[in-house]
Write a structure and sequence with these properties.
This protein is an all-alpha fold. The chain is built from 22 helices and four strands. The strands form two sheets. The chain has a two-stranded antiparallel sheet. A two-stranded antiparallel sheet has the order 2-3. α8 packs across α22.
Length: about 600
């Protein structure tokens, strides 16, 4: 039964009352600027991902950057016409396709692969690998778009928030250019500040050190050793502050709690038992990764299972997809992506993915063939869950695939990881396109135009992500260390080792840690699901606790500070925070990460 407020035929209503037929959309300038912003966001997300384990949102930041860029170009008369709201929508679609190349298990899988195997695949085949997976994800969105967005009108919260931001920037919500200028200035000033901090800290000009220390020690000891020995200190990495500010406060205080339990309680116990000789991040995390990974996987799978209604609806929608046909043609068919694009694309691209699985990762061809239909089903499920919750369930879908391949291809660590990459990547890119299509639906944009915009973005992202990784992290041995904790890579590598080699091959402490993590993950997920709404804010976040067990304690402290400052700002100045909190946090992330990438590139090229 449809809500009273929803038209009987939402597609006809949209064509008549919402669609903007005459406005410019995917112009050459929108594609070029979107690609450039996508590259910037891709580099920024790459840096942040290996520091924190999170991939940050792209669309809102890209929309603000695009608006500010074209205001400047118009003011200097380098362009005569202002950016339209639908041009910005197409532009952010390009940027999102590129920027999210770090997510969905792509970099988690690639980093984990380099951690567990000695072979580093060549750049060209890996670029092709990531491009093909992303393209399959984009194609997967085609047959379910009309059901999830046009008919059911699922929320896709990030897509809805992006639409509201673009309306505010372009004057549809009454803010006009002044509102866009405020947000752009907030992003620019925080970005310059963060870039300056990174420059002072990372540019080695004073006896091999920067002018600003990387950490500030805490004035206490644990088990007779300085807190910094246990990784508990204050980092001067404002990118972590920015990342924390984009989290909810519950996740932030859970990170702090997890850091204290891991490095002030559990780590001293490991030393006391003689399991590690001296406290260091790499020695501690070699043990804590097991309960941390188990906690993240168990909570993800439990939350996924508790959302069984979404899963059932996904499969019912899957059935309706192949049951549709023979009906009268609808006017919206002229702007929606033709249904035939989906099967034709899969027939062409799926064999190439299987071929690369066999060639690059020594996965038996028959096991590679299984991965494609499995990832298709998982992509449908991931898209619906994202539409209803704004969370793409890669923490659940990846381990499910790893478990399956641990059974059918035992001992193949690389294959186990990269088969899960197929599932996670297709699910992410399908959900990402649907999120941007939700923005277009609300603004009256052409979905076929956005499909091609997304395709441009994923090609750009695939071309940049692998060489950027090589420049940023030339030696994969640093992954899992204090400078590059790479928590998601640690989790994927740990799950692969457990599933591929068998639980019995692990150290007894690791097996105990896995059991504890599984119980805790399931328990927290059940508590979060069943607890009264007013109590949920006091239940620790499973994601916060799990990530805290695989990043240095200093990272957890910094992200807690960021989430705490953002929460204070939202409570003290709610109207102002609603306008500039996200731009400020995004600026801190972009400013430091881009300066960090620049310094890393200049160092690698021996310029400095």
């Amino acid at each position: 039964m449809k809500p009273a407020s929803q038209p009987t035929d939402p597609e006809s209503h949209w064509i008549t009352h919402v669609m903007r037929r005459e406005q410019r959309q995917l112009t050459l300038r929108a594609a070029l600027v979107g690609a450039l912003i996508g590259i910037v966001m891709c580099l920024s997300n790459l840096y942040v991902f290996f520091k924190t384990g999170w991939s940050m949102g792209v669309t809102i930041t890209a929309g603000i950057l695009a608006f500010a860029t074209f205001r400047l170009l118009t003011a200097t008369r380098l362009t005569r016409t202002p950016l339209t709201i639908l041009e910005n929508n197409a532009l952010t679609t390009v940027a999102s396709g590129a920027g999210y190349m770090t997510g969905g298990g792509n970099m988690a899988a690639f980093g984990a692969l380099l951690m567990v195997t000695a072979v580093r695949p060549d750049t060209a085949p890996m670029v092709l690998w990531f491009a093909l997976i992303a393209m399959l994800g984009v194609l997967t969105a085609i047959p379910i778009k009309r059901q999830l967005i046009n008919q059911e009108q699922l929320a896709f919260p990030t897509g809805t928030a992006t639409a509201e931001t673009l309306r505010a920037l372009h004057g549809d919500a009454g803010g006009g250019a002044q509102e866009g200028a405020v947000q752009a200035r907030a992003l620019a000033f925080s970005g310059l500040f963060a870039g300056g901090i990174a420059l002072l800290r990372d540019l080695k000009v004073f006896n091999g050190s920067g002018l600003l220390p990387g950490t500030l020690p805490l004035p206490f000891e644990i088990a007779g050793k300085a807190a910094a020995k246990w990784t508990l200190s204050i980092k001067t990495e404002v990118v972590l502050i920015g990342a924390g500010a984009l989290m909810n406060f519950r996740t932030g205080w859970s990170l702090l709690l997890g850091s204290i339990l891991t490095y002030a309680v559990l780590a001293p116990s490991l030393v006391a038992q003689g399991l590690i000789a001296e406290p260091s991040y790499k020695a501690i995390v070699a043990y804590t990764v097991w309960p941390g990974a188990a906690l993240l996987v168990a909570s993800g799978l439990t939350s996924f299972a508790l959302g069984w209604k979404s899963i059932v609806r996904s499969f019912s929608g899957f059935g309706r997809l192949f049951g549709r046909g023979g009906g009268q043609r609808h006017p919206i068919d002229d702007i929606e992506c033709p249904a035939a694009w989906f099967p034709i694309g899969f027939v062409i691209l799926a064999p190439l993915v299987v071929l690369l699985m066999v060639w690059l990762f020594q996965i038996p061809w028959w096991a590679g063939v299984i991965a494609v239909p499995l990832s298709l089903v998982m992509g449908f499920v991931a898209a619906r869950v994202t539409g209803e919750t704004d969370v793409t369930p890669t923490k659940a879908l990846g381990p499910v695939t790893q478990l399956l391949y641990g059974v059918i291809t035992p001992g193949n660590l690389g294959g186990n990881i990269m088969s899960a990459n197929v599932t996670g990547g297709i699910g992410l890119h399908a959900a990402d396109l649907l999120t941007t299509l939700k923005t277009g639906w609300l603004l009256g944009g052409n979905p076929r135009v956005q499909f091609w915009a997304q395709m441009i973005g994923v090609f750009v992202g695939a071309a940049i992500i692998v060489p950027a990784f090589t420049l940023l992290i030339p030696d994969p041995a640093v992954l899992g260390g204090e400078d590059w904790p790479a928590p998601s890579c640690l989790v994927w590598a740990g799950v692969s080792e457990a599933f591929a080699n068998g639980i019995d091959a692990l150290h007894p402490w690791a097996r105990s840690g896995i059991v504890i993590g599984l119980v805790l993950g399931v328990g927290l997920a059940l508590l979060e699901h069943w607890a009264p709404k007013q109590l949920k804010a006091y239940i620790p976040s499973a994601s916060g606790l799990g990530i805290a067990m695989v990043v240095p304690g200093s990272n957890g402290i910094a992200m807690f500070l960021g989430s705490g400052l953002a929460e204070w700002f939202r409570r003290a100045k709610p109207a102002l925070a609603a306008r500039i909190a996200v731009p400020i946090a995004s600026g801190l992330i972009a400013g430091e990460s881009l300066m960090g990438v620049l310094i890393a590139v200049l160092t690698a090229s021996k310029v400095i």
